[in-house]
């Protein structure tokens, strides 16, 4: 049962990633693109944890944690560049 | 692994998948940028939370000990999600809205995007700084 649930969830997140890519390509303003990038980071975290359950190892949690931190810092850096024209003043 | 644990894990996984999909569908479907800010919060809280709950139950029933890595990821995401949402909204407001588009802030000072920060009570008053503009 768990295998089918894993497949379904991975399919859902795959389609969600494609929708995020469409928003990045389409998005009228830069804030839309930043928001779509942030959502992609969230979806990739969920996919990594799913893959960890699939393989039965706990190694992928560290990778998910790292991606969460890097995603937060990159989102803040993008927004700060839009706001101030500079990242570190 | 018992059947109860399997059913619990599968329910958490399916719920998380549905909410992750709904988050990105709302990102495509909603009309305005500040409306679109609403949708991916579902993927952040319930989507990732469901996957992490499923992972905690799975590794508890497989290995026999409870791991707290998942709780760390959840805590980090819950802490950073409001900050990123606030930054994205500020970036959108600074580039796409003018002061006349916004209602008055209702407080003593104006909006933080357009107006100077208020001079605090404990700060020494600086004589050269101009008067803080009030919201209309």
Structure description:
The complex is a heterodimer of chains A (89) and B (136). With 89 residues, chain A is mainly alpha-helical. Chain A contains three helices and no strands. Chain B is mainly α. Chain B has one domain. In chain B, 61% of the residues lie in helices and 0% in strands. Chain B is elongated, with a radius of gyration of 23 Å. Chain B starts with a helix and ends in a 40-residue tail after the last helix. In chain B, 26% of the residues are buried.
DSSP helical segment count of chain A? 3
Radius of gyration of chain A: 16 Å
- Largest interface: chains, residues each: A-B, 52 and 50 residues
Distance between the termini of chain A: 53 Å
Overall SS class of chain A: mainly alpha
Instruction: Give the H and E element order of chain B.
Output: HHHH
Count of strand segments of chain B:
0
């Amino acid at each position: 049962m768990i295998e089918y649930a894993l497949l379904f969830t991975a399919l859902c997140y795959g389609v969600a990633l494609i929708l995020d890519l469409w928003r990045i390509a389409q998005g009228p303003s830069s804030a839309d693109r930043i928001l779509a990038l942030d959502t992609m980071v969230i979806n990739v975290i969920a996919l990594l944890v799913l893959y960890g359950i699939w393989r039965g190892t706990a190694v992928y949690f560290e990778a998910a944690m790292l991606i969460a931190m890097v995603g937060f810092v990159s989102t803040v850096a993008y927004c700060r560049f839009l706001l101030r024209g500079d990242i570190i003043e | 692994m018992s059947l109860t644990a399997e059913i619990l894990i599968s329910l958490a996984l399916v719920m998380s998948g549905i909410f992750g999909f709904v988050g990105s569908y709302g990102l495509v479907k909603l009309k305005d940028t500040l409306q679109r800010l609403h949708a991916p919060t579902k993927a952040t809280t319930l989507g990732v939370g469901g996957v992490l709950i499923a992972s905690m139950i799975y590794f508890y029933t497989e290995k026999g000990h409870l791991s707290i890595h998942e709780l760390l990821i959840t805590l980090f995401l819950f802490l950073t999600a409001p900050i990123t949402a606030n930054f994205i909204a500020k970036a959108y407001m600074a580039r796409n809205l003018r002061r006349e588009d916004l209602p008055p802030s209702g407080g003593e000072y104006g909006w933080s995007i357009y107006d100077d920060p208020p001079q605090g009570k404990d700060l020494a008053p600086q004589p050269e700084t101009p008067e803080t503009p009030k919201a209309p």
